[in-house]
Write a structure and sequence with these properties.
The protein is α/β, with parallel strands linked by helices. The protein has one domain (about 10-249): NAD(P)-binding Rossmann-like Domain (Rossmann fold), CATH 3.40.50.720. About 45% of the residues lie in helices and about 15% in strands. It is built from seven helices and seven strands, in the order βαβαβαβαβαβααβ. A seven-stranded parallel sheet has the order 3-2-1-4-5-6-7, sandwiched between helices. Helix 2 (about 40-50) links the parallel strand 2 and strand 3 (about 55-60). Helix 1 crosses helix 7. The longest helix is centred in the middle third of the chain and has 29 residues, at about 105-130. The chain is globular. The mean pLDDT is about 95.
Length: about 250
Amino acid sequence: MGKLDGKVAVVTGAGTGIGKGIARALAREGCTVVVNGRNMDSLAVTVDEIKKSGGKALAVTGDVTQEAPVKHLFEEAVRQFKRVDILVNNAGRIAGGPLEDLTLEKWNDVMGVNVTGVFLCTREAFRIMKKQGGGRIINIGSLAAERPREESAPYTTSKHAVWGLTKSTALDGREHGISCGQLNPGNTAVERRLAAGGRSASGRDQGPEPLISVEDMARAALYMATLPPDANCLEMTVLPVQQAYLGRG
């Protein structure tokens, strides 16, 4: 018996990295997982790995910054599995640079995925969860929601916005049995960081930095997802012991 038997989750950005790790962790506990992203090839790998481990998963592609694909994602989840119990808003963009050199295109790209995408998915999940009498939303934030890195204005601003949306969602959802919490990852060994030798793309390059594994983040998300319905982990931060954090030092 798994801790999430009979539950249905939607996980965005689940083709790689933290999203993929969370999707696999939820499935191991018996949760049916609907994985979303823009690349069907990577989503298909996630689904295949889950199914080979005895889990149940479905891939639905789509851009979370657009209303129509987001509506389709949740309509498919309900059509196939009748409900949505958990939403993990993991899809994200990461970008930075000197403030005076930032383009509007880069700013809008980061804000579109990291903020508008979270809002659109939350809105659709909220509608479903309200009708069914409850659910849980987990937003993937960042250390940047509390401690900015130099030259990270788009990313830092977006993650501050996600923290505000997390608290508003938790407040608006509590009378309907809908909880919302935010998981803030520290430096995590995702494909992008590994390819860059442990360097960050979110702000000023500080050279290789200590990393924790995707599995560490997946375990944290699983803890949040498996709390009883009357309990909510509003915020959790998981980071390498040696990572600069307080004051970024």
